[in-house]
Amino acid sequence: MLTIWGRATSVNVQKVMWVVGELGLPHTRINAGGPFGGLDTPEFLAMNPHGLVPVIKTDDGLVMWESNAIVRHLAMADPGRHLWPAASPAGPTADMWAEWAQTVVQRTLLGVFVNIVRVPPSKQQPAVIEGHRRELVAALQTAEAQLADRSFLAGESLTIADIVFGSALYRYHELDIARPALPALSAYYGKLCSRPAYAEHVMVDISGMYVKD
Amino acid sequence: MLTVWGRATSSNVQKVMWAVGELGLPHRRHDVGGVHGGLDAPDFAARTPHRLVPVVEWPDGTVMWESNAIVRRLALLDPDRRLWPADAAAGAAADMWAEWAHHALQRPLIALFWAFVRTRPAERDAALIAALHRETVAALRAAEPILAARPFLAGDRFTIADINFGHLLFRYHTMAIERPPLPALAQYYEGLTRRPAYRAHVMVDYSSLVPTP
């Protein structure tokens, strides 16, 4: 049985849990981080010296941290390679779009999220939020062009690219920000929302996370 | 023969070229980006929607962008898996430390490089530079006990983790910034500078990136 340490509201934990759900892996998740704490105990730091979630431990005792590396590991360990096709060119395409989603989409979304959710209303800086939002929307426009002629970011099936990219979209749609019309992206997000593993592990209510004045 | 598009002074190109050099792969590299331009040339634009280097094309026609994903594919295709061990534990360690180096060190260090080396003295933001320097040093301090305990970042062998981490150390050691004593890191860096592929592809004069006064 796979063990995952990490709170359900962490987007990095959500990536891992979405994979676990898509692959139907038997697992136990232990809440850690945020209000649950537990990241500075000797036992946790022995698993991850950086004191961050998610951390996983496999049946054979392998411990991993860094969500994207965990996602790749689980995808490669799946005999069917459903989420990271072994065959060329689908495999390389999935990995490069996953990398793009992390360095561009997750980074800019985090800028928007942190400055809205983690900053009380009286201290929020609209210009800072708007700067991040513009960068995020520019990235989503690139995705819009990519999604115009395919069902998923890297082709016709769900891959690790969608895990890293799609896990950002719930928050994008939940935050109180201006969203331009991006029809292919909307249709794609609708498809993700109808996946049970996405609904369970990514569409996790963020309303309790807002810092108040 | 592998084809690489990207200027030799780009740190992301350097990751790819260092891996190419370590694996001894026949290749040719086209100078693209920066002073060389060429990001709008049809043969380049047809291969990536993002107008960024590096881009790589394999003999089988597979095209990739995103340096970390390219390095992973180069490592996965190597029959001996010299840079990304096939062993589950060693392979997982290599990938997670590579991911960590990308987020914890590359982000602040490259931002510092832009704010300091690539910005005219009169236009530099001292507070920003100080904050990025602190973040850079914090990441290197986190690596210090790891490197004190083993020869390479992810274990006993040189891996993709060292590519993602080590390619940044030439810039760190050649920028006119304060460097706290970190003996294990210094010894590790000295070891890298004795690798022919590191000398050829990472220890590249970047004075052409410094803006004219």
From TrEMBL, chain A:
Lineage: Bacteria, Pseudomonadati, Pseudomonadota, Alphaproteobacteria, Hyphomicrobiales
Keyword Transferase: yes
Recorded family membership: Belongs to the GST superfamily.
SUPFAM superfamilies: GST C-terminal domain-like, Thioredoxin-like
Annotated InterPro entries: Glutathione-S-Trfase_C-like, Glutathione-S-Trfase_C_sf, Glutathione_S-Trfase, Glutathione_S-Trfase_N, Thioredoxin-like_sf
Keyword Aminoacyl-tRNA synthetase assigned: no
Name this polypeptide is given: Glutathione S-transferase family protein
Every GST N-terminal domain range: 1-82
Pfam family membership, one: GST_C_2
Gene source species: Acuticoccus mangrovi
Keywords: Transferase
From TrEMBL, chain B:
PROSITE patterns: GST_CTER, GST_NTER
Taxon lineage: Bacteria, Pseudomonadati, Pseudomonadota, Alphaproteobacteria, Hyphomicrobiales
Residue ranges of domain GST C-terminal in the record: 87-213
GST N-terminal domain location: 1-82
The organism of origin for this protein: Acuticoccus mangrovi
Any Pfam family matching the protein: GST_N_2
Protein name: Glutathione S-transferase family protein
InterPro entries assigned to the protein according to its UniProt record, in alphabetical order: Glutathione-S-Trfase_C-like (IPR010987), Glutathione-S-Trfase_C_sf (IPR036282), Glutathione_S-Trfase (IPR040079), Glutathione_S-Trfase_N (IPR004045), GST_C (IPR004046), Thioredoxin-like_sf (IPR036249)
